[in-house]
Specification:
By secondary structure, the protein is mainly beta. Helix content is about 15%, strand content about 45%. The chain has one domain: Galactose-binding domain-like (Jelly Rolls, Sandwich), CATH 2.60.120.260. It is built from two helices and ten strands, in the order ααββββββββββ. Strands 1-4-9-6-7 form a five-stranded antiparallel β-sheet. Strands 2-3-10-5-8 form a five-stranded antiparallel β-sheet, with no helix packed on it. β2 and β3 form a beta hairpin. The protein is globular.
Length: about 170
């Protein structure tokens, strides 16, 4: 065998070995919703965890130390947002507590300078459907594509639930 054939044979063996032991990223234990949900915190003393149930409900649990303002921690759902477009966001939200939770729902934004699109909702133990007719994502918004629908509630520990029903572009 010449050097070229030896190199080719070694390359094929390495490729087979890698395919046997390395995942290609298609983990069947993840659902599409599990891939879309994430968290962000300003201060690591607050821990936010998302658990996605089989029925599509995200169980959002805040533990550790509550922060001084609700915007300092967020559970978010990624969607494809485009500059110059407006969206209608429909979701359900409720708590497992008799106490009211105020949640800042940010439907676009990023960084500290903005711009931001957001509303504040009151979440109670009653499962309620919310419909937010969002503003157009401004042309000055620096990021297009993966956009966060954030549920900011860092000022209160506990658990609340969110089920995304739809995010649809608003037609003019």
């Amino acid at each position: 065998m010449n050097k070229k054939n030896i190199f080719l044979a070694m390359t094929v063996c390495i490729l087979i070995f890698c395919l046997m032991f390395v995942s290609c990223g298609d983990d069947p234990s993840y659902t599409e919703d599990q891939l879309r949900w994430g968290t962000w915190v300003q201060d690591p003393s607050l821990v936010i965890t998302n658990q996605i149930r089989d029925d599509g409900v995200c169980v959002i649990t805040l533990s550790g130390s509550a922060l001084s303002q609700n915007w300092m921690g967020s559970s978010y759902y990624l969607y494809w947002g485009q500059r110059g477009k407006a969206y209608t966001y429909t979701f359900e939200a409720w708590t497992n507590s008799p106490l009211t939770r105020w949640v800042n729902v940010q439907y676009f934004g990023g960084g500290t300078a903005g711009p931001f699109g957001e509303v504040i909702i009151q979440v109670t133990s009653e499962r309620k459907t919310f419909v937010i007719n969002g503003d157009r994502i401004p042309w000055s918004f620096t990021r297009e594509g993966d956009t966060q629908l954030g549920f900011r509630s860092a000022d209160k520990l506990g658990t609340f639930f969110v089920k995304i029903i739809s995010i649809e572009e608003t037609q003019d």
